[in-house]
Design goal:
With 232 residues, this protein is an alpha/beta fold. It has 7 helices and 10 strands. Helices cover 34% and strands 28% of the residues. The protein binds adenosine-5'-triphosphate (ATP). Adenosine-5'-triphosphate (ATP) binds next to β1, β2 and α1. Pfam families: ABC_tran.
């Protein structure tokens, strides 16, 4: 008898989430009772036109912004409305972010950039360096460990940024156009490295992208439609 499939394990659950902005006289509704679940090991593409609310969704899912209504649950814990300091602590431990521009600290080497979030979390220097080296090797840029961001190519900088985002072994990776600043070939290579990391570590990843080729390679695609998160 074949084994039943392993049960899906939700990492992020949005339940009837609302986000509104006030722009002068206007109330702008970006999320309007949005429901969404992403499971362990799943890579989901978020595709939507500019201004549709991708960053708003990522910031709400990433506990950077509180929802106006509804619940954000991370690893089984309802945490969207917790006080700022608690959300910050959960974010540091359980969520990794990658942006379009790497945001690496220019005065530190690639290795040090990946060590820093681990040191903030209280890890010993030696352990942090070992993990940073492993991640750099995994991203095929081990030889660049001692280089500062300005001495790296755009693709290498993004690989370091991805390695830094997962340095504290988060459960959820949120990425806003992680390859948007790269030429198509480099974007493909960086995406390959990111996808391998997600699958190997069992992360859940929500990745906003305008690149339809890369979106098609993820497990599924979602978009924003009238404040709801729907299949794309
Ligand atoms: N703090 C804010 N106050 C008022 N309006 C905001 C605020 N943040 C975002 N908006 C508006 O909400 C809408 C969605 O913005 P958001 O940045 O989430 O879109 P996006 O899909 O990420 O866009 P892009 O692809 O251009 O980055 C936009 O119309 C934006 O002007």
């Amino acid at each position: 008898m074949s084994k039943p499939p392993a049960p899906a394990r939700p990492v992020l659950v949005l339940n009837k989430v609302e986000r509104h902005y006030v722009q002068g006289e206007r109330k702008l509704t970006i999320l309007n009772g949005a429901d969404f679940t992403i499971n362990r090991g799943e890579m989901v593409a978020l595709v939507a036109p500019s201004g549709a609310g991708k960053s708003t969704l990522l910031h709400t899912a990433g506990l950077l912004e509180k929802p106006d209504a509804g619940e954000v649950t991370l690893n089984g814990r309802v945490c969207g409305n917790l006080p700022d300091d608690e959300r910050t602590s959960i974010r540091r431990n359980e969520i990794g972010f990658v942006y379009q521009f790497h945001h690496l600290l220019p005065e530190f080497s690639a290795l040090e950039n990946i060590m820093l979030p681990q040191l903030v979390q209280g890890l010993a220097k030696k352990e942090a360096a070992n993990r940073a080296r492993q991640l750099l090797d995994y991203m095929h840029i081990g030889k660049r460990a001692g280089h500062r961001p300005a001495e790296l190519s755009g693709g290498e900088q993004q690989r370091v940024a991805i390695a830094r985002a997962v340095a504290n072994a988060p459960r959820l990776l949120l990425a806003d156009e992680p390859t948007g600043n790269l030429d198509p070939q480099t974007a493909g290579y960086v995406f390959d490295a990111l996808a391998a990391l997600v699958k190997q570590s069992g992360l859940a990843a929500l990745i906003a992208t305008h690149n339809h080729e890369l979106a098609a390679r993820m497990d599924r695609k979602v978009t924003l439609d009238q404040g709801h998160i729907v299949p794309a």
